[in-house]
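Journal club prep — side note

Before the paper discussion, L.F. wants everyone to see what a predicted structure for a comparable chain looks like in token form. Sequence:
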Amino acid sequence: MSKLLIFTAPSGAGKTTITRHLLEKFDFLAFSVSATTRDPRPHEEDGVHYYFLSKKEFKKKIKKDAFVEYEEVYEDQFYGTLKKEVKRLWKEEKHILFDIDVQGAKKIKKVYGDEALAVFINPPSEEVLIERLKNRKTEDEKSLKKRIKKARKELKYANKFDTILVNDVLDVALKEAEEMVLAFINKEPVEK
């Protein structure tokens, strides 16, 4: 059976950069596309970056038990992992890579247990994280404040996961992420 590799972090810690690198590096990995009710950003494509759903569609899927996990991450912004997405990737016989928020990561880990490796990506400091969020320039002031508040809260969950990856020097973090993936796929112990 395929394994699940869960990468989680507060916004701005680098999880998307790291997961994209891993997907380019290893052809045995496949990306689990999450569903969301938020609007797509200019570069994002439906079915590639996210499955973009209306709130009505999302809530209909909740009632039909279509999600492995879901969360209202921000007010009126839902994110979730569709069961059919996991099944689709298993049919392809790929190990599944998740780039997911902290609450969703905890739920997936709980469902799949030892078949999943949950990696928390930590910034070198809270100050660096806040600076990264500001430099992205993807948020208006109100949205940025919400992300910072949520990020501060999520940083407290770091030790709730299987291992922590500090993203200070990107090249070092990428190499360490590669080593974690290979060790887990090959059943070697992953150090905390």
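L.F.'s comment for the group: The helical segments are 15-25, 55-63, 83-91, 102-112, 126-136, 141-155, 170-185. Keep this in mind when we get to the figures.
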